[in-house]
Design goal:
266 residues; mainly alpha
Length: 266
């Protein structure tokens, strides 16, 4: 079965690359700066966040570069938010194409996650600049060998997002209300994830709730390396890997079970 999946993936890899390329062209069509927005947007967003949380609300974390703390969480959550939303709508907006020619349906949500993933990789460039050139003598971050483990967190985030994208895109075919429901869920999820605050600010009896939030573990994995210069704990590795694989496999199963019925709801 795995061999058949890999062969099918290789067979349609050109089509997927074309769909990703199309998304890039559509997104930056008639844009003067084009792809440069992928670099400028995080910097502009950082400036706004810095103004709001560092100067207006006076958020501080002793011994930690708060801008880096904020941006490491924000960059990862933004990828999850944009990719899951795009994957959710991918089947519905491509119904006309699905009626005309056979295309493996998983390509639609997967290509969206890949497209947003390329943008995510571009945003890591301004994040690196923030890491290198912000902070004072006490809070300045330094590059260390543990940065080699960062792709693990990003891969887990990608697998989790793809799995959830499969689930959301499947539900959207049968229930279009999910577009509005998930928007509310994302807002709650954003505050449920410690992006601009630290988990230590939460009451001890409530901190355990964060262990059921996969995004918390992906972001915490990244911060342990970038901010605290040490290898993530074993439990963090296990939570990241376990949550990503479980959601990804569950999403694949749900999608495969329902994909033959999609065309009847087009």
């Amino acid at each position: 079965m795995l061999g058949r999946i890999l062969a099918n993936f290789k067979r349609y890899s050109f089509l997927m690359s074309q769909m990703v390329s199309r998304d890039f062209k559509v997104k930056y069509k008639r844009s003067v700066l084009g792809v440069l927005w992928s670099l400028l947007y995080p910097l502009l967003q950082m400036s706004v966040m810095a103004l709001v949380f560092s100067y207006m609300f006076k958020f501080r974390m002793p011994g930690v570069n708060y801008l880096v703390y904020l941006m490491t969480g924000l960059v990862m959550f933004n990828y999850f938010s944009e990719a899951s939303n795009s994957a959710m709508t991918s089947l519905v907006v491509n119904f006309p194409l699905m009626k005309k020619v056979y295309i493996p349906k998983y390509i639609f949500p997967l290509s969206k996650c890949l497209f947003v993933g390329i943008n995510f990789l571009l945003t890591l460039i301004p994040l690196l600049l923030i890491i290198l050139f912000t902070g004072n003598q006490e809070t300045h971050c330094i590059l260390n060998i543990y940065y080699l483990f960062l792709p693990f967190a990003y891969l887990c985030l990608f697998l989790f997002t793809v799995g959830l994208g499969f689930i959301l895109s499947t539900i959207s075919v049968f229930l279009r209300d999910i577009f509005y429901i998930f928007g509310i869920v994302l807002t709650i999820w954003q505050y449920y994830t410690p992006i601009f605050y630290d988990i230590s600010m939460i009451a001890p009896n409530l901190q355990k709730l964060f262990y059921f939030n996969p995004l918390y573990h992906y972001i915490d994995f990244t911060r342990q390396i970038i901010l605290y210069n040490h290898i993530p704990t074993l439990s963090c590795w296990l939570w990241c890997f376990g949550s990503a694989i479980v959601v990804f496999l569950f999403g694949c199963i749900i999608f495969k079970m329902k994909q033959d019925k999609f065309i009847y709801y087009a």
